[in-house]
Amino acid sequence: MKKILAFILSAVMLFGLTVTPASALDIAEIKTAVTDVFCKALAFVFEGLVKGIVAPIKEGDNFVSEDEYFSDSLCDGLYDGTDEFISEETEGARWALGSASVSLVPEDWESYSDLYLGGYMSMDNFMSNDVREILDDMKVRVIALSDGTGRGTAVFATIDSIGLGNPDVEGIRRMLGDFAKANSINSINIFTTHSHSGIDTQGLWTNILGSWPLTFVKGYTGLGDYHGGTSDKYMAFLYERVSFAIKAAVDDMETGFMSYAEKDFGEKYASVNNRPSADAVDGKLKRFTFVPDSGSTPTIIVNMAAHPSTAGMATSSKSDKVKGHGVSGDYVYYMGEVITGAGYDFMFFNGAICGIYIERIDVNTNQRVDIAAAYGKEMGKITLGLTKTQAEIEADSYLMGLGFTDEELADREYTPWYENWSPATETEVAPLLNIRLKNVEVQISNPVILLAAKLQIVNYLIKKTDNGEYFSTTEIGYMEIGEKLKVAFVPGEFCADLAYGGSSLKAENSAWGADFTEQPLSELFGEDILVFGMANDAVGYIVPDNDYLMCVDFGHYHETISLGKNTASALLKGFAELREEIK
Question: Is residue 12 part of a domain?
C-alpha cells in the first residue's frame, strides 16, 4: 500500500509541474487544476494496475497472428453495399419496403439458467442481474428496402439489447448467405437500441461474483475451457429469430411512397448527462414514413439519440420490486406501442448516444419502468403528431386519449407536449438508395478490453502483431437516401461532438490540452448528417482522442469501456477514406 501511495504522490508531483502557481489562479481554477492532476494520476495508476492483472493471463484461440487474422468481416464482399453510387433519381424507379418484428424472449425463458440483463449491475443484486421477470418485450424490428434501380436490397435489423459484437453480426449474415444471394441483398445491417434492460447479448453483465473467480483461475493456469458471458442457447435462439425476421421482411416487400420530416427539440427530451467536456446533442427526432401502394400497413422509421437506460435499473424506493431483474425494451418498446396502435409498423435507430440520456418526463412512481413507459409514450405521440398543427393534435382522439393521469402528474410542473406547437415540414424522398460498408482496424490499448478478450467474456477476435500490439476490425457505413439525406453508421456509443463538432474537440476543453485532429462527420458529409449508432458492432464508447482519460469517473468513466485512445480518430479516418472511395 505504501508503494502505491508513493507512486500516486510521485505522479501528482510530476503532473503538478505543469500547473500554474496558485497565486495566479482563482479558487475555481485551483479546483480544476487539482482535479485534473488527480484524474491523470488516477488514470496512470488504474491502467498500470489493470495491465499488471492482464499480462499473465494466457491468450486463447481468439488471439491470432497477423498472418492468420481474417479481417474481411463483410463475408467476402457479399454485404458491402451498392457497387455503384448514383446521384439522381432513375426514371421509373420506385421504393419497395418490407417490415417485420418478432419477440426475442423465449417462451420457455424460465427454463434458462444463464440469462442476465445487459447494461446494469449492482451490489444490491450481488452483481448478478439474473432474469426473473418479463416487464414488456424485447424485440427485433426489421425493414428491407430497395429503390427499384436493380442494385439490390438493403436490410436493416434493430435489436432491443445492450449491443451485439461484429462476430455475432457475421454469424447471422452467414446464416443468410444463400437467401441473400437468391434475393439480391446487398447489405445486412444489424443495430441495437442499447437497451439496458434486455437479455445480455455481449457477456459483460453476467454473474460476476459467481463466475469470474473461476474464469481468472483458468486464465492464469491455462486449465479448462472458457465460457463466454452470454448464454450459448440464447444466442442460438437470437440468431434464428433475427434471421427469421429478416426473411419475413424481404418477403413482405411492396412498392410505395416515402416521405421525411424532422423536428429539433434542442435538449428538451435528451441532454448530455455525464460527460461535462462534451456539449453537442442531436436534439432532432427524424421520421421516415413509407406508405404502400396497396393500402396495406404503412411503416414509420424513427431516428433519435437517447439512452434506453431507465427500466432495468432500480429506484431508491424499497417498493421497487424490479431491482434490475426485469426484461424490458425500455422507452423504445412503449414508443412502438403508441405508433403501432395508430396503425403503423415501427422501426427505430438510435443515434450518437455517448453521455446522452432522456429528459423532461417526471411522473409519480416508484418503478423506473413507469418512467421509461411515460417517456416512450410521449415520444410516440410526438412522432405521430410531428407534421400536425396544434389544432389537429387536439382534435385527434387517439393522441389526446394517451395522456397522463392526474395521479401521475400530481405535484409536477408539466405542460402538454403540443403546447405552442409548430408542425414540421414533410417532404417526399426520391427513390434513391446508396450504401457502402467499410472495415476499419482499431488498436486496442485499453487493458480492460484486453482483460475481457483474454478471459473470453465477450466475443472478440483479436489480431496480435509481432511487436505486441493488439487490433480489432470493426465496421463503419455510409448511406444516401433520397437526393439529400445522408446517414453514417457508427459501431458504438458515439460522442455527438465527433458527429457535429463540439467543445471536447477543442484543446481548451480537452483532457490533454490539444485539438482533435480529424474532421467530425458534419465536416466530412455535411451538417445535416444523420447518425445510426450501435451499427454492425458494439465497440463501446467512442470519445475524442484528445479527451481520452481512463480516470474511471470525473466525467471520464466512458473510457473504461472503449477499445482505446485512438478509436475515434481511426473511425473518422475510415469515414474520410470512405468519402473518397464513393466519389
Answer: yes
379, 337 Cβ separation under 8 angstroms: no
Q: Residue 568 contacts by C-beta under 8 Å, 6 or more apart in sequence?
A: 495, 498, 516, 518, 542, 543, 544, 545, 548
Grid cell of 50 as nine digits: 489493470
Backbone φ, ψ for residue 159 (5° rounding): -105, 135
Residue entry with cell 480529424: 518
| Beta-ladder partners of 254 | 97
- The residues with which 95 forms a beta bridge, in sequence order, are 256
Are the C-beta atoms of 340 and 167 separated by less than 8 Å? no
CB 502 within 8 A of CB 285: no
Residue 411 belongs to a domain = no
Residue 190 near residue 242 (C-beta atoms within 8 A): yes
Q: Is 288 exposed, middle or buried (0-12, 13-18, 19+ CB in 10 A)?
A: buried
At 136, phi and psi to the nearest 5?
Answer: -145, -95
How many domains does the chain contain in total?
Answer: 1
Q: What is the pLDDT of residues 42-66, one digit of tens each?
A: 889 999 999 999 999 988 888 988 8
166 with 147: CB under 8 angstroms?
Answer: no
Distance of CA 121 to the CA centre of its chain: 18
- Between the alpha carbon of residue 345 and those of residues 60, 295, 561, the distances in Å are 44, 13, 34
How many CB atoms within 10 Å of residue 518? 20
Q: Which helix (H) or strand (E) holds 45?
A: helix 27-54
Enter the C-alpha cell of residue 327: 426484461
**Nearest-angstrom CA–CA distance, 15 and 201:** 41
Greatest extent of the chain over all pairs of C-alpha atoms, in Å: 77
Let me know the angle formed at the C-alpha of 326 by 238 and 274, rounded to the nearest 5 degrees. Answer: 95
Residue 8 belongs to domain spanning: 1-55
Other CB atoms within 10 Å distance of the CB of residue 119: 25
Residue 421 lies in a domain: no
Q: Where are the strands (E) in 296-448, listed by range?
A: 299-304, 326-327, 345-350, 356-358, 427-428, 433-443
**pLDDT tens figures, 182-238:** 999 999 999 999 999 999 999 888 777 777 777 888 888 887 777 778 999 999 999
How large is the C-alpha radius of gyration of the chain? 24
Nearest alpha carbon to residue 103 among 149, 131, 134, 60: 134
Residue 135 lies inside a defined structural domain of this protein = no
| Of 112, 98, 333, 348, the residue nearest 237 (C-alpha) | 112
Got the DSSP string for 484-526? TEEEEE-SSEE-HHHHH--GGGSGGGSTTS----SPPHHHHH-
Question: Grid coordinates in use for 400?
Answer: 389526446
Residue 297: in which H helix or E strand, if any?
Answer: none
Q: Are strands 356-358 and 326-327 parallel, antiparallel or unpaired?
A: unpaired
Mean pLDDT highest for which of 27-36, 146-155, 221-230? 146-155
* Cβ atoms within 10 Å, residue 580: 7
Q: Which residue has the cell 473518422?
A: 572
Q: Partners of 289 in the beta sheet?
A: 259, 300
Strand 95-103 and strand 254-264: the pairing is antiparallel
Query: Rounded distance, CA 537 to CA 261, Å?
Result: 28
Interior/surface letters 243-274, b for 16+ CB within 10 angstroms, e for the rest: bebbbbbbebbebbebebbbbebeeebbbbee
